[in-house]
Specification:
The protein is of the alpha+beta class. Helix content is 35%, strand content 34%. The chain has one domain: Aminopeptidase, CATH 3.40.630. A seven-stranded mixed β-sheet has the order 1-2-3-4-5-7-6, with helices on both faces.
Length: 175
């Protein structure tokens, strides 16, 4: 499993992932709606043009095939922190790929980007994602109760974070 830049050959998989209505609410704050390829391509072009300094997007690659995306966004250069986001196609979930991708992104953020803190949000019912984050060293910092409307019910958002000092301390124990 590697993290790499997006290539033209990845676009069909990335569109499929972006248009997945089954996980829409876990990835978007906007109401679920069908996503056309034209709208996806336009959104991607706009995102490329408007990319904020400090934000980084990778494709998650397994044996030369794109299976998802992972990113650092909402970066704050003064406070040295950023938010983490990951999305994987259904067939890549539950195999440890997400945990490896998060681990690599955390190392990249702390070692290469000199960040001191990373944070993320997860839907409370997404136990697999929360376990993956905890395996890498993220800790629950709080929750927003009934904050998200997900598939017909309100759900809590779990707020998680990791400090570079915590990640470094884990290095002695083995990541």
């Amino acid at each position: 499993m590697t993290l790499r830049a997006r290539a033209e050959a990845d676009l069909d998989v990335l569109f499929r992932l972006a248009a997945d209505l089954a996980t829409w609410e876990e990835r978007n704050e906007s109401p679920p709606a069908p996503l056309t390829r034209v709208a996806f391509d336009a959104r991607l072009a706009l995102a490329d043009e408007d990319q904020e300094p400090g934000n980084v997007r990778f494709v998650v690659d397994v044996d030369g095939v794109a299976v998802g995306t992972i990113s650092l966004f909402e970066s704050n250069a003064l406070a040295r922190h950023a938010e983490v986001g990951i999305a994987l196609v259904p067939e890549a979930r539950g195999q440890g790929i997400g945990t490896l991708a998060i681990s690599q992104l955390v190392e990249f953020a702390f070692v290469r980007r000199n960040l001191r803190r990373l944070h993320l949000q997860a839907i409370a019912s997404n136990a697999g994602a929360i376990r993956a984050y905890e395996k890498v060293g993220f800790v629950v910092e709080g929750r927003r109760r009934d904050h998200a409307w997900v598939r017909g019910a309100y759900e809590d958002i779990v707020l998680m974070g990791i400090l570079r000092s915590e990640w470094s301390a884990r290095g002695a124990e083995g990541r």
